[in-house]
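Journal club prep, notes for RB
We'll compare a predicted complex against what the paper describes. Inputs for the iron/sulfur cluster case:
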Amino acid sequence: MVETATPALATPKRETPAREMPIEAPALGAPVLEVRGLSKHFPVRKGILRRTVGHVYAVDGVSFTIGAGETLGLVGESGCGKTTVGRTVMRLIEPTAGTIHLDGHDVTRLGKGEFRPYRRQLQIIFQDPFSSLNPRKRAGDIVGEPLKIHEALSRGERRERVAALFERVGLRRAQMDNFPHQFSGGQRQRIGVARALALNPKLIIGDEPVSALDVSIQAQVINLLMDLQRDMRLSYLFISHNLAVVEHISHRIAVMYLGRIVEYTDKITLFTRPLHPYTEALLAAVPVPDPAIKRIKRVVQGDVPSPLKPPPGCRFHTRCPYAEARCKVEVPALREVEQGHHVACHLR
Ligand code: SF4
């Protein structure tokens, strides 16, 4: 791989609105989660014999780490593979290649039984708080389900634990006997958070956890997640297409495009000095609440190519305003161009 330091691409001066004080990044010890070269290629089958005629390259060589008490935001347009990353880390989908280390243990190829003790350290909150809750079960039973499976508690002990979880996420214990349809959207997502907390996990994967909620409710759920992180030293992999939400909650951010990470750094650097043209374009699309502030628009042409047949070389070259000849043939490596700032672009 040719690695050249070419500062030819001047970062435009971006005018951004005043933002609140950044979240202080926690001191990072040994990572809670370490993902190396993770790939997931889904076979495409056709005909009576179900022959494999191609692959959907949903995730292709993704690497990142998450420390204790840290939030890594994973952003990108829909279809970029970020949800597949989350589900593969959860082992809901088996990876095609790569490794997943949880608390220093390689859990990539563990069987169901062997993975069980690690499973409780790793929980997920889904996007749609309504469809992720069984409408026929009472809220208390939904939250208590993981305890029923993983812990030997009496009925009374379990009910007490569930009541404490309800109160921890801002619900009343009297609501334990209600059904999901009796809660608002925000309350249903709180039930999802309580269920994720039941086994005292180390890492929670939030798969667009607030996208289905009204903006005012989004802020409440995000603040709840941040309070829980502070109190319980939780780590989050926060998957979202919404950069404003990711900026609020994350310490570091990884930007994905067509199955690969193209930029990866702390959030302050990403929002003030993005180095990848795709990140620039994403940031330019974030609405600014002050009409007096104008953003400098970076033009990104065309649609996202199909992950069935991703473009050769840099996958972004079909839309990049700076693409040059070698971008079409050479895959840019994700390189650390300055401390902690990783970029996959030939011009950096
Ligand atoms: Fe960088 Fe890719 Fe654009 Fe080339 S096509 S300039 S490698 S982002």
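Talking point for the session: The chain has a mean pLDDT of 86.
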